[in-house]
Write a structure and sequence with these properties.
569 residues, 26% helix, glycosidase, EC 3.2.1.141, single chain
């Protein structure tokens, strides 16, 4: 087998294969190679005898500090030959974390619950990062070997079994990938070459535009294409792309979109790129022939924030601006709330307007909850711990009746009582204590007592964050689950609800935002967020409701904290 590694500054490189060292030969452009037979391997740079895992490793059976293992993609027997993929427009995304979705926390255990997802009506399963990170438990955003599926989850074969099973159920699979930084433990890339340039808020950032950056960019592009091609994935969610520092004329994101488009044509199935960005810049999801980067969608934190404020009344931090009257209505119409407007949280103007005449709403993912907005709260509390079932129902109705692509976070569909907290499992005691202390100090600045913040290194924190699969059949949870199934079914049944044309969206609100009427063609969604009944002119055939609103000939009386979706013709 030919072992290859990029180490442009090294004067000597060896590869240790199954315990025996072999000298490597310098090839072109800083690459080294050696033809050796074996399975487990690591590289030694210069005269340093410390073996390092392969930056492009496909498998790490013993963790991120140990030897890599040769992996043959052709050996897996796929059964999804008839799979033709799913486009994102018209879809419903379900975000889950493999380690806490089930008690076992493995890819195979997720397979056992796919029937629930298929019955729910979702179309895309979005997996939080499954790349290799130090320790056994974690969110996955501290990954350091991006091409190796986390071994405790089931490794590369386990991930392939999950993707194969999803496709058999008609479910597309999107993987969350992190290219903006590397984790704090096991990030050896800088020993091989000029991979790093500066730091982000979370760790070392990549050199995307400096000397030697061509191969660094290729490292990212090959990783992305490998997930889509070799693991049969249907899309990637790109974490925090605003932290990608790239001053080249052709941004990495545009280059990625171009190569993914070519791969999609070769595979003859749709491949989707979804960005997370706080820049509120339409350029990300504008087609390349119109001067954009050509990504297919991006998360819509603005809609989340507007909904969260409306449902909870929280107005601190980045929620402050969303207390402005009409914030929810504006975001439903225009996707961005901050669009070249003042952001008090940032103390500057922020964002750029979206041309709602031409930009389709399906390019924005709408959600009531997600892993960040739950897990980055001090105690990881879900909305179900804060608001009434009626307000939860109103929030879900707004998301699924919006012109955007709906997304929900695991357990949301039955108002799970389990929190989803921040957790990690770094073996290094000093690093573990630093994370523990940093987390508590961070929330202490926001008024939380240090004893209120769960210890992220305590296995009990992970245990608390696992879904309780006995809940969906229990009173209170069962009704919410039925509502989510109904809303998703209606979204598929009525073209008005998947119509992405933002210039056809109309919203009426009370001066104090206590109620809202969303117009979707011949459908009307009326939500009463207030603690008292309200009469609204939305008479028609009731398609879905919460709170048993009575439909009259000319008006509907909505009880407190309720909604009704009606067809007016």
């Amino acid at each position: 087998m030919m072992f290859r590694v990029w180490a442009p500054s090294a004067e000597r490189v060896r590869v240790r294969v199954d315990g025996t060292d072999h000298e490597m030969t310098a090839a072109d452009d800083g690459w080294w190679q050696a033809d050796v037979t074996g399975t487990d391997y690591a590289f030694l740079l210069g005269d340093d005898d410390r073996p390092l895992p392969d930056p492009r490793s496909q498998r790490q059976p013993d963790g991120v500090h140990e030897a890599s293992r040769v992996y043959d993609h052709s050996a897996f027997e796929w059964t999804d030959q008839s799979w033709t993929g799913r486009q994102l427009p018209g879809g419903v995304v379900y975000e889950l974390h493999v380690g806490t979705f089930t008690e076992a926390g493995t890819f195979d255990a997720v397979i056992d619950r796919l029937g629930h997802l298929a019955d729910l009506g979702v179309t895309h399963v979005e997996l939080l990062p499954v790349n290799s990170f130090d320790g056994t438990a974690g969110w996955g955003y501290d990954g350091v070997l991006w091409g190796a599926a986390h071994e405790p989850y089931g490794g590369p074969d386990g991930l392939k079994r999950l993707v194969d099973a999803c496709h058999a159920r008609g479910l597309a699979v999107v993987l969350d990938v992190v290219y903006n930084h590397l984790g704090p433990s096991g990030a050896y890339l800088d020993r091989f070459g000029p991979y790093f340039a500066g730091r982000t808020d979370w760790g070392a950032g990549l050199n995307l535009d400096g000397p030697g950056s061509d191969e660094v960019r290729r490292y990212v592009l090959d990783n992305a294409l490998g997930w889509l091609r070799d693991f049969h994935l249907d899309g990637l969610r790109l974490d925090a792309v605003h932290a990608l520092v790239d001053k080249r004329a052709v941004h990495l994101l545009e280059e990625l979109a171009t190569e993914v488009e070519a791969l999609s044509a070769a595979l003859n199935r749709p491949l989707t790129l979804i960005a997370e960005s706080d820049q509120n810049d339409p350029k990300l999801v504008t087609a390349r022939d119109a001067g954009g980067y050509g990504l297919h969608a991006q998360w819509s934190d603005d809609l989340h924030h507007a909904l969260h404020v409306r449902l909870t009344g929280e107005t601190t931090g980045y929620y402050t601006d969303f207390a402005e009257p009409g914030a929810l209505a504006r975001t439903l119409r225009e996707a961005f709330f901050h669009a070249g407007t003042w952001s008090s949280f940032r103390s500057r103007t922020h964002g750029r307007p979206l041309d709602r005449r031409v930009a389709p709403g399906h390019r924005f993912l709408a959600y009531l909850q997600d892993h960040d907005q739950i897990g980055n709260r001090a105690t990881g509390d879900r909305l179900s711990a804060t608001v009434s079932p009626g307000l939860l129902a109103c929030g879900a109705a707004v998301v699924f009746c919006s012109p955007f692509t709906p997304m929900l976070f695991m357990g949301e569909e039955w108002a799970a009582e389990t929190p989803w907290q921040f957790f990690a499992s770094f073996p290094d005691p000093e690093l573990a204590e630093a994370v523990r202390t940093g987390r508590r100090r961070e929330f202490a600045r926001h008024g939380w007592g240090e004893t209120d913040v769960p210890d992220p290194m305590d296995p009990a924190t992970v245990a608390r964050s696992r879904l309780d699969w006995s809940e969906p059949g229990k009173p209170g949870h069962r009704e919410i689950l039925g509502l989510y199934r109904t809303l998703i079914r209606l979204r598929r049944s009525y073209p008005e609800l998947t119509d992405p044309r933002l210039d056809r969206v109309a919203v009426e609100t009370a001066p104090d935002d206590s109620w809202l009427i969303l117009h979707r063609g011949g459908l009307r969604l009326a939500c009463n967020f207030a603690a008292k009944p309200v009469e609204l002119p939305v008479a028609g055939e009731v398609l879905a409701s919460w709170g048993n609103p009575e439909v009259g000939a000319a008006a509907t009386v909505l009880p407190a904290e309720s909604f009704v979706l009606v067809a007016t013709r």
